[in-house]
Amino acid sequence: MPPRWPRQPDRRDPDYRRLDDRMNFAVHVAIFLATNSGLWFFHNFKYSNWSWLIWFSLTWLALLVFHLIYITAIANYSVKSHE
Q1: pTM: predicted TM-score of the whole model, two decimal places
Q2: How many structural domains comprise the chain?
Q3: Which residues fall within 8 angstroms of residue 75, CB to CB, at 6 or more apart?
Q4: Mind listing the pLDDT tens digit for each residue in 52-73?
């Protein structure tokens, strides 16, 4: 059963923004995992030289870590956003 928000969703609501940012992060992690697992699966066939794959994966992982740091430590959800 999907989670239900107890009131009308509004991006100006700090609790809703926090939840929305975390769900957005979860979607990004899922896309990262699906894409990278598929790329590494085909890389293991060794049909061609995919030396760029390690840098691609590490760069994307670093961006995900920065995203996580932002939503957990930097983002200020107590201030209402402008319309």
Answers
A1: 0.82
A2: 1
A3: 18, 21
A4: 999 999 999 999 999 999 999 9
